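Homework help thread (please don't just give me the answer)

Our assignment gives two proteins as sequence + structure token strings and asks us to describe the second one. The first is just a warm-up. Here they are:
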Amino acid sequence: MESTLTYLERLTRETKKPEAEVMTRAFQIGLRQLWREHILGRYLRHEISRDQAIEAVGIDWVELAERQHEAMTEDLAWALNE
């Protein structure tokens, strides 16, 4: 399993970008992902409306979360009936 440092070194070398730029981009992407997960979690817990979730993260992400949640619910129901 590769370490975070290995990923950083490879990205820096293979993209020919400065380490600071790669780190900044990684931070930005990670922060966006955390925000998206936070919003989708709130939506699935019925803390915010579907429209609010769509406005915050986009319809594609909301629809993906809905499909994943439905699949997980179906799997759980199946497992509990077995």
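The one we have to describe:
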Amino acid sequence: MASTSRIIPDRLRVLHTFDAFHNPVYRRLWLAYLLVNISRWMQMTLLAWLVLELTGSPLLVALVGFFGMGPMLLLGVIGGVLADRVDRRRLLLASQSASLISALVMTIVLFVGVERYWYAYLVILVSGIGWALDMPSRRSILPDLMGRSRVMNAVALDSVAMHSSLLIGPVLGGGMISAAGMRGGYLVVAIFYLVSVLLIRSIKLPDRRNRHSRSHNVLSNLIEGFWYVRGNNVILATVWVTLFMNLLLFSYMPMVPVIAKDYLNVGPGLMGILMGTPGLGALVGALLIASAGNLHYHGRVYLGGSMLALLALMAFSLSQRYFLSLPILLVLGLGTAGFSTMQATIVMLVASEEMRGRALGVVSLAIGAGPLGNVLVGVVASAASPPLAIGLNAAVGAASLVAVGVLMPSLWRRMSGSVQQGTVVEVPEP
């Protein structure tokens, strides 16, 4: 009997890990999200390698990340407004269809053999615009689709999809370069986008357009979103952490091909594995969070995971061996799982329903700091070295997180009530 009592809870925990998959609409939405993100990371890998081969310039390689993330800086907050105002299914279809068309055009260009390095910027820009516009809509769908009781599980499984793509996309991209060249790689990207579009077309989503918006003026909606975030210390602290992480942590990614080729002396296949390793660590972390029953201190997981990732990045900047770099990036990925999962969960639990999309839009604006980080890393890498550039970023990022934790302690406090039981989270007053 004693052994049986130990087995049953373990089985229940496994079932709880994938609880959101009981919803058939969420399953299709999740698969579409997985394929889109695999395509995006494949493109980042393929295009970074293409620009490196054509130019040999770390700065020009870094601009791939700039154009891929740049639209988030300008359009992310607008995407949050659209999430509260328009048919979210149509918005997802439009953004992913545009990415499909750009991938098909790039595939044709590669088969014809007329590629130029700046073509990479145009293609990744289209994908970045789609990401900026559809991410707030997709995230704002989850509470309506799943209810508060399952929202953390749904977000955690979304993180599983995102981090699985971070593992699969670069590995598949690097492998395709070695096995079938850029042409074969981009053909796979286009196929994944096509399947994603078909999946989105097959589902029906909850529609809450204009249900709560007090103004039909987009500018007024934007201002409302900023004032709402400014008046809530927990969401404001979340935005600051998001800003620092995207500016100072994730900007390392376009530098990985440069470090792999010039410092670790490996080819595109091993480079792809190196880029995908953080995805494996993040996948493990996201599954652990998805399996968690009751979490009350979401902010501690958020800050702790962010700090772990930055410290691992600092170690990666000092590594001179390929097989030492792999476990370091695995730890980095584990830390990013705490960051990415809790970032959206905190906002969706704390924000009121009528302001949820706009609050996520402000978070998207902070995510848009990533392109500035890519340019900064590229400039320092060209003037000094890529390892020094990412090491400095990691040190400044760690110091910034300490400052947020000290100056905005509300993020550390217990969020009352059980998320899994669907009770309202009580947030300390600003």
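TA reply:
I won't write it for you, but here's a hint about the kind of observation we're looking for: The CA atoms of residues 30 and 158 lie 7 Å apart.
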